[in-house]
Amino acid sequence: xxxxxxxxxxxxxxxxxxxxxxxxxxxxxxxxxxxxxxxxxxxxxxxxxxxxxxxxxxxxxxxxxxxxxxxxxxxxxxxxxxxxxxxxxxxxxxxxxxxxxxxxxxxxxxxxxxxxxxxxxxxxxxxxxxxxxxxxxxxxxxxxxxxxxxxxxxxxxxxxxxxxxxxxxxxxxxxxxxxxxxxxxxxxxxxxxxxxxxxxxxxxxxxxxxxxxxxxxxxxxxxxxxxxxxxxxxxxxxxxxxxxxxxxxxxxxxxxxxxxxxxx
Length: 264
Fold this sequence. Notes:
This protein is mainly alpha-helical. The chain has one domain. About 65% of the residues lie in helices and about 5% in strands. It contains 9 helices and 3 strands. Strands 1-2-3 form a 3-stranded antiparallel β-sheet. A hairpin with a 5-residue loop joins strand 1 (about 230-235) and strand 2 (about 240-245). The radius of gyration is 21 Å and the shape is elongated.
């Protein structure tokens, strides 16, 4: 396997192993805090907010039902997966080391985005089955508000929200890769996340849980990539920054350059 710079995929060096463990501990602490926020929402806000959303005008529900479709993982997984595979294959068969290096850089970048969305979705799917939370519709129809753990029925897979996790992972990926576009990325993601509550597909605590899982998974994945010097790298100050990929060759190859784009 090769890195985005065309080298060999390597493990985290000793200089950064301690930093990675500290970051993992902080991430776990943050995830525990997010769990407490979810519990607070479940006990104090979810039921009342769900019933309030049912009183919104039909036109509002109609708009958000269109918006919510953008939270399906397939819209991102297929193009990202095919793009990463195509660029990786091109790097393997096209002549020229420099050209292959550039294709590998972009293949790794797309693979990072693909894995962030995929792994966030898989984590959510597992928790859905284990938690077995009833969908909001049961609250209105029969007054049932609770959990039936280890449940494979979609009606009892409300927590956490998969659409919210997908939207959050996409926004965080864009934030990590193109920090200057972070506001646009979250302006795109937040209406999708909110739509799940507005159309009563999920409770507020469900979308909080979905977002928290996506942020944790994507953050951990970026740390792993940085530890192996792929797509991301540790700067001299200990911060993780994106390795700027060389533009893909179009016509005459441009001068080769490598820099860092600020990541947070």
